Every structure is written in C-alpha cells, then in structure tokens.
Amino acid sequence: MNTRRTMLVANWKMNKTVVEAVGWLNTFYPQAAERAAQQELVEVAVCAPFTVLHPLYVALRRLNSKVKLGAQDVFWQERGAFTGEISAEMLQEFRTKYVICGHSERRVLLQESSEMVSRKCGAAVKAGITPILCVGESISVRRGGLLLQWLEAQLYESLAFWDNQETIVVAYEPVWAIGTGQSATAADAEQACGYIRQVLRERAGEMADHISILYGGGVTPENIGELLDCPNVDGALVGGASLDPDAFGKIVLAGCKEQPK
Ligand code: PGA
Q1: Which domains does the chain have, with CATH numbers?
Q2: Which residues are CB-contacts of 259 (< 8 A; sequence separation ≥ 6)?
Q3: What digits encode the pLDDT tens for the residues 126-140?
Q4: Which of 173, 180, 214 to mutate to test the pocket of ligand 1 (most atoms within 8 A of CB)?
Q5: Does this model's pTM top 0.85?
Q6: Where are the beta strands (DSSP E) in 147-234?
Q7: How far is the CA of 143 from the centre of ligand 1 (A)?
C-alpha cells in the first residue's frame, strides 16, 4: 500500500522581499491553502529565500496554517568559518520542513557538483529536514539520447549520503523546461519520473513506492491536471507560476482533486 501525498511546492527563487512575501500569503491563504490544509493527502510548501523564512514562519503560525516552509539551499557543515552559508540547524529554527538541494540553477551557475549536493542532502536529513533533490537533463543530453543514463548517474552520485530509509523527495526538472515557458509533456514527465522510481527501487526496494517524485519546469494552472494524472508524478515544484498567489492557488486546488497514488 503506497502512502504518497500530492505535493505542491512553490520555489520562489531569488524573489520577494518581506513585505511581498507576507502580502503573497495574505492573498493565497484565504483562497486555497485552507482547503488544501484540511486534506491529509495534499502537502503544500513554499521554498522561500532565507531572508523571508522568519516572517513567513510567524505569519503561518498566526494563521495556524498547515502550509509548510522550505528553503532553497543549505550548507553541509554544522557551523564554523563558512562565510555566507546557512546551516541546517539555522533552518530548523523556523520549522523548515524541506530544503531544495541541487537545483539546476545552482548546479549550472555555481558549479555545484552531485557530490556537494549529496553532502547538503545528508546535512538536511541529519537535522530532520527533508531534502527535495533536483535532477534533470540539458537539451543536448536529451537530444543525444542520453536521458536515462544521465538521470541514473545524477541520482547515484547525489544520493551517496542516503541510507535507503530516510525520507527524501526527488524532483525531475528538465533544464530546458525551467523558466523557459516550455514544459515537458505529461508523457515526458511520466517517462522520467517512472525511470527515477525504477532506479530508486533497484536501490531501496519497496521504499521507492513511498517516495514522492515531483515534476518541475513550466508548471502552470493549465498543465498541472495532466501532469498529476501521471501515475509516477506525485506533485510539482513550481517556479514562475508560484510567484502569483492566484496562479499557485489554482495549482493547489487542482492537486486537491487528485486521488492518492
Ligand atoms: P519554472 O521553475 O516553474 O519557472 O519553470 C521551476 C523550478 O525551477 O523549480
């Protein structure tokens, strides 16, 4: 019996000041989050910049909201001389439940390797924070017919920390679909997410059936329904469309219609 909830996760990236973040929540909360929060099988999270985690934490508590907080990065060391970095313990202070690790923007722009990503995921897990591990291919890898090999290698290297039991979330995010207005088709998303589950199953057996695998890249209120209908797509990591509380609200409401997988 599987226990995979539908997860709808906003990734705000480097957007929103404190005033904007709290304003977003005040618009979003009354329309969709309340309804979603009542459903045990839907999980809604906002991965926000570090600077707005505390005000959002306060606002979510005030609203008694079940919307969860997430961060967009974490460093692997617990403390010390690492100028500019943020530890998992620091994120814990705001009940941060999730942290995105290995987003392609960090892998590409900041040369984050899968080895670094694995150490970050490991630090998160140790602190009781669930990593949302991002994997995905560039357009040249896809055109070269190397999609499956690429995903397998990224998973293998980025999950070096994993003991096969700790809770993790994996997000399949094809680099060519991120922020380009071009989404993968539902069939593309299912193929990749299904393959990711197969790789996880080879490694962790039945545990793989309990891991949420999300799709990310060009998700909108218009395409979320067909993506969530895919048997191996358990939710979405939403960038651009999550900046607008109305659009993200529509995406959450679409998730509330889904049956658990
Ligand atoms: P997008 O970004 O929805 O704007 O394509 C998704 C992501 O990068 O997580």
Answers
A1: 6-256 (3.20.20.70)
A2: none
A3: 999 999 999 999 999
A4: 173
A5: yes
A6: 169-172, 212-216
A7: 21
